Structure formats: structure tokens, C-alpha cells
Amino acid sequence: MKVACVGGGPAGLYLSILLKLQDPSHEITVHERNPEGSTYGWGVTYWRGLLDRLHLHDPESARALDEASVRWTDGVAHIGDHTVRHTGDQGFGIGRHRLLEILAARARSLGVRLEYDQEITADRLPDADLVVAADGVRSALRTRYADHFGTEVTAGRNPYIWLGTTKVFDAFTFGFTETDHGWIWCYGYGYGADRSTCVVECAPETWTALGLDRADEAEGLVLLEKLFAGVLDGHRLIGRSRGDGSVPWLTFRTLTNRTWHRGHLVLVGDAAHTTHYSIGAGTTLALEDAIALAGALREAPTLPEALARYEHRRKAALLPAQSAARYSARWYENLPRYLRLPPEQMFALLGQRHSPLLPHVPPRLYYRLDRAAGSLEPLRRFKRWLGPRLARAAHTRSLTGRDG
After folding, report:
1. Among 36, 203, 293, 380, which is most buried by a count of CB atoms within 10 Å?
2. Apex CA 157: angle with CA 215 and CA 401, to 5°?
3. Rounded Cα–Cα distance for residues 29 and 152 (Å)
4. H-type helices in 79-237, by residue range?
5. CA 110 from chain center: how many Å?
6. pLDDT tens digits along 280-292
7. CA quadruple 95, 97, 103, 109: dihedral positive or negative?
8. How many angstroms separate the CA atoms of 355 and 376, rounded?
């Protein structure tokens, strides 16, 4: 089979690796519009479950990723003058550049052609039996056939910005700072020996009142360094301007598609779906798309059956992550509801922000019920029963336009 992967991100590269391992005779080319090594981004996160799955499918690349990653087990929240630390599941961080470097080297070693600095447009698709649109949230291939795919994009409320920092966090770190204009917060995690990612977010009215909507890159970074001085321990933040001095603040765009394939064209990764960054699942879901698509191509007797099987499986598998992302984003959009709690309780509900129950229960009562559910099996069963039903009801309201 001749395969063209349009986009040299994690999904496209890992799919090319898996297909070559399944059948070395496949002719596979990855087309990336940017020069090699020019990827934007600081570090990405993933969890032990993904690493275990990668070891099953390609132990060699999994070992390389494992060795290049940093680890943490603790979560830390700085809430005003208070600090709370909890131990949880093991997390991993790796620089996006290093991740792509490892996957590209593995793909090349298996005979995949990597073509950089090559723009592929929907008007001239590559000559291939299968074309994989792995070209991200702004996918040109998906956009060309948006009506067929049923693409929908929902904009989030809060502005946010991805930054780097020379502060190396030893835990997944949250910082919540109160200003005269409302709260502003950050998420930080290490991804190398001398760097961490730091994502800053706030309500739009706070962003405007602080002047972050008008500040150039240097001014904005100085202000944010002052606001998060306690979290950063005096370290600096590192930005990436657009070239005109402005800082790329964004609002998150949740993207969905009614269908993921059209003829021999199929969507993977952010071209197919996005989930809010606060659950740290983007890279994991992209790699899992690649695993599922490779599996469907191996199992199904025809290409149309394989693409239909891939879409069906991944849509079902994505539902929990999409629900978690939706509730996580809303938790932050309603942050003042939780900041009145004692720090220990606030941090506990931060860990419960994916729950569909939480928006419907007063925070202090939810905290007490959650603590009780930890020791009483009937309450645990009731929580497991009620949560999905509330999630489905909320999803139905959103589809009918009645979700406030």
C-alpha cells in the first residue's frame, strides 16, 4: 500500500512507524510543511498508561521516549500564600522537539520517507492509496471538505498562552494569584534538565484589565513573572512572539467532526478532534489514533471497512476524554466558585474537576460527599451511577442549545 501522511507531528510519524512494522513493503511518505527541527512548542505530558501501550506496539521507540522524559508523582498547588502538595499517579514530560526527533529517527530507520518544507494542499493530494490528514487543528485538507466532515469549532471563554521557563518544576505545579482585577493562574511541568512548560490562563475581563491584551511580548512576560514570582522562584519566562512583538494569546477551540474519512482521505489527531489542554491529553490521543488506525488497516479486508472501523472505535474511546475536557475547562471558567474553599479542599476539587457531578453540587458538600464515598461502597456506586447520567443530560442540553 502507498500511504501519504500529511503532517509530521506525533500522529503522522507514529502511524508511519506502525505501518512499516506491520508490512515493510508499504511505501510511506510523511510530508511536513515546516523545516525539520522547527517545531513550535515547549514540553508535552503523558502518563504511564500510554507508555505501556507504546511498549506493546514498538518497544524501540518507547524505550527512547522513556529515556528522554522527566517524571513526577506529586501535584503542587500554590493558592495565594498557601501551598498544598499531594502524591498521585506518575506523569511524564518530554520536549516536543525531542519527541518528534525520536519518532522521525525511528521512522527513517524503517524506510519511511520524510519530506520537510513541503506544503500539501487539498487541491493536489499526493498520489497514494491512503492520504492521512495529520496536519493539525487548522488542517487544510479537512477545511477543504469541511461540509463533508461536518466540522464544528466551539471557542472557549478564557484567554491562555503557552510559555517556557527556566524554572524546573519537580511536580505538576499549579499557581493561583489574586490581582486587583481577578484571579490569574498557571500550570507548570518539567520536560528537560533545564526547562519547563508554563501555561497561563485567566478570565477575559482580568486579561483586559491587566493590560495583557495590549502588552508586547517583553511587557507581558515581565508582568507575568511578577505575578508568579513565588511559583517561578525568580526564574524567567520564555515567550515566542509572532515576529511583530505581540504575544500569541489564544482562546481554546474545541473541534469535532461528524465523520473522519472521505474516500481514501482520513483524519487523525488534532485534525479530527481537540480536547482542552487542561487535561494534558493531546499527544496521547494523537498517538492512540495512530495505533487504532494501524490496527484497523491490519484487520479489515478493504480500505473503506478499515476507515469505518477506525472511526467507530476512536469516537467511542474518545467520549470519556472529551467529557473530562469539557468539565475541566468549565471548572476553570468558574474558578471563583472554588477559591473560597480552604486550600486543601480547593486542591482536592481541582483533582475532581472532570466530574459531571461537581457543577451540580455545592463545592463544600461535594468535598464532604467525596471524602465519604472514599470509605463507603454504596456512595461510590451511587456516584458512578449518577455521574454518566448527568454528563449525558448536559451533552443533550448543549446539542439542543439549552446549555447555559
Report:
1. 293
2. 155
3. 29
4. 96-109, 140-144, 146-149, 204-209, 217-227, 229-232
5. 28
6. 999 999 999 999 9
7. negative
8. 18
